[in-house]
Amino acid sequence: MRGIKRSHDLGGGLVTQPAGSDSGPIVNRWLQLTACVVAMAAIANLQYAWTLFTIPLTESLNATLSAVQLTFTIFILAETWLVPVEGYLIDRLGARVVVTVGGVLVGLGWIGSGFAQSLGALYFWYILGGVGAGAVYGASIGTALKWFPDRRGLAAGLAAGAYGFGTALTILPIQRMIDTGGYRSAFIFWGFIQGIIVIVTAQFMRKPRPGWKPAGWVPASVAAVVQTRVSKTPWEMVRTPTFWLMYLMMTMVAFGGLMVTAQLRPIARDYGMDKVVVLWGVTALGLALILDRVLNGITRPFWGWVSDHIGRYTTMAVAFALEALAILTLIQFIDRPLLFVVLSGFVFFAWGEIYSLFPAAIGDIFGPDYATTNYGIQYTAKGTASIFAGWGAAWLVEAFGTWLPVFWVAVGCDLLAAMLAFFWLRPLAARITSASAEPERRGVGAVAVS
């Protein structure tokens, strides 16, 4: 057929693509997933190594913790609230172009932060990095979902897991560089490294042709995971109560995890965990940072895989309740070094799954055709949560002189989200997806999602 490149399909791995498209002639979808994973790992430090810079920045810029943590909040806002726009650009220009630009911004964000002499300059450069990180994140998750409609939970989990795990390999080198050469040199050196890696991996990213499905895959009519056969546009999605329920749930759960992400070093300092050596000459804080990042990476594909078998919303309920339990236990034993390490890691294991479960759920409920843009809108919930997790949590501590109010708010949010997932969203999603499939079986048009 004219305009089509010839290819071979080996178990859904190699696919045929339209000639002259962004997709290229022959593409292996596992290579696409690998490119997404590497790009996500390369941007992880902007969020997950941030806590290492908080105390040096307060000292260097003569600023309060809440003023410095405002950087984290506006970074997350820039990373998340622009993702819908970036998703639109990805759908129009392709992931390769958008991720390449994102890589440039990611590099400049940290390099510029290393030269910043004021809070205003720090805010500007970290916002720039946030825009770049959001472009890379949105494109990587969207690309993974498009190539793996048959394994959405696992694919989104692996891509998002790289974002959580990426810092595990760099956290100690960055910490040592800060201790020996200062935080400015760490920002500049790692800014160059991260930007280059993202730009290189972007060149491998492609998109499948419209209507492509893995060889031999047919959406199951009865399965643990219910999936709609009707794709909703972003405008149709935001007009549904279901979307806003999911947005509220993601915001509440993201608050607890982002709070620990941003505040772990200040928390460790206040409880003396940054000075106590636990193992191999590494402090409780250092070990916690490593374990947290490892578990934060593992949790995403793990819970994504679980959700593919027992359902998204049952999995959400279990994971959200476990995070509440982890924070409750951490409150009781936060001054014990080994338990501080283990329990902070468990908090990360129980919250990082939102970045695999929610993109998969968005695809299940609102369809695959606009998955990148739709999840981009959902992803702004992380930005909303960052307002309270970064600046808000630091302000509460400065006002009350203790971290306990922050911890208790996180526990309450997790428990409420768990109940909403199990008792409201689970049956609601089942009704929506079964209703959307019924007209197709009858050969009639689709019904609206409500």
Describe this protein's structure.
The protein is built from 18 helices and 4 strands. The protein has 450 residues and is mostly helical. The chain has one domain: Growth Hormone, Chain: A. The strands form 2 sheets. It has a two-stranded antiparallel sheet with strand order 1-2. A two-stranded antiparallel sheet has the order 3-4. Helix 8 packs antiparallel against helix 16. The longest helix is centred in the last third of the chain and has 39 residues.
Write the layout of secondary structure elements.
Layout lengths: L13 E3 L9 E3 H14 L1 H5 L1 H11 L4 H17 L1 H11 L1 H21 L3 H29 L4 H14 L5 H11 L1 H20 L31 H5 L2 H30 L6 E3 L2 E2 H27 L1 H22 L3 H15 L2 H13 L4 H30 L3 H39 L8
Antiparallel strand pairs: 1-2, 3-4
Helix pairs in contact: 1-7, 1-8, 1-10, 3-4, 3-12, 4-7, 4-17, 5-6, 5-7, 5-17, 6-7, 6-10, 7-8, 7-17, 8-13, 8-16, 9-10, 12-15, 12-17, 12-18, 13-14, 13-15, 13-16, 14-15, 14-16, 14-18, 16-17
Keywords:
single chain, mainly alpha, Growth Hormone, Chain: A, two-stranded antiparallel ribbon, 74% helix, globular, disordered N terminus
Largest sheet: 2 strands, antiparallel
Could you list the spans in which at least 5 consecutive residues all have pLDDT below 50? 1-12, 16-25, 439-450
Tell me, what's the shape?
Answer: globular
The CATH class is: Mainly Alpha
The second-level CATH architecture is Up-down Bundle
Number of domains: 1
Q: Biggest sheet: strands side by side, in what order?
A: 1-2
Radius of gyration: 22 Å
What's the N-to-C terminus distance?
42 Å
Q: Which sequence of SSEs, written as H and E, runs from N to C?
A: EEHHHHHHHHHHHHEEHHHHHH
Q: Specify the structural class.
A: mainly alpha
The CATH topology assignment is: Growth Hormone, Chain: A
- How many helices? The count is 18
The count of β-strands is 4
* Proportion of strand residues: under 5%
Please give the share of residues in helix: over 70%
Overall mean pLDDT: 81
CATH superfamily: MFS general substrate transporter like domains
